[in-house]
């Protein structure tokens, strides 16, 4: 049965009979759910949420009023053919937010689990958002951006297309991210620049003092030693080869746009 009998659907909502609505889903007043949408168990949609076709939401998500999911990509070359938005479990997406599906046929915009996405912003086509990230109000995430787990994007941040933000990185408010941002560190300024370790985030994530000390040494080698980038990465591998510093090195070596440096 496409609509589970335990789902609660407001009388003013419009839900396509071709949508799949799971157990204990709550769909508020004046919501619109198009065909070929799937909404998982326990998800709640507040009033005036619009979920467009080819969108999938997992379990226990909260989507607040005025949000539009699965919008056509903001890409002048978009052909209108089928593409997808896939959202995992336990996400919070607050008021007046838009998230686009992929631009090319059969492409995907992917949101993981347990993210907290605040008000009045946009995640564009073909983005990859990990799990446990925070994206604050009025942040704008352009197409093909990747944000790793537990990153923190402050209010008013603008992220250039195809940029990557590493795990547990923290971006200060009103920063322009126009290069890749390595994991674990804190970044500010109009043009994104490193400003030390994200100590609050690391401690909240349970990092131990020796792990933080290793990342601090990696930061010094990368941003304070005046070594060339390749030399700094080799020094990190030799001096402090831990799980997290190796992730840092791998992230930087995979960068196509180049990473921000002072």
In total, how many beta strands? 28
Q: Order of strands across the biggest sheet?
A: 1-4-7-10-13-16-19-22-25-27-28
Corresponding CATH superfamily of the largest domain: Hexapeptide repeat proteins
In round numbers, the mean pLDDT is 97
CATH names the topology of the largest domain as UDP N-Acetylglucosamine Acyltransferase, domain 1
CATH class of the largest domain: Mainly Beta
Main beta sheet, described? 11 strands, mixed
Estimate the global geometry from the Cα principal axes. elongated
Helix count equals 4
Give helix % range. Answer: 10-25%
Calculate Rg over CA atoms. Answer: 20 Å
Taking the alpha carbons of the first and last residues, their distance comes to 57 Å
Structural class: alpha/beta
* Residue runs with pLDDT of under 50 for 5 or more positions: none
- Into how many domains do the coordinates divide? 2
Oligomer: single chain
Residue fraction in strands: 25-35%
CATH architecture field of the largest domain = 3 Solenoid
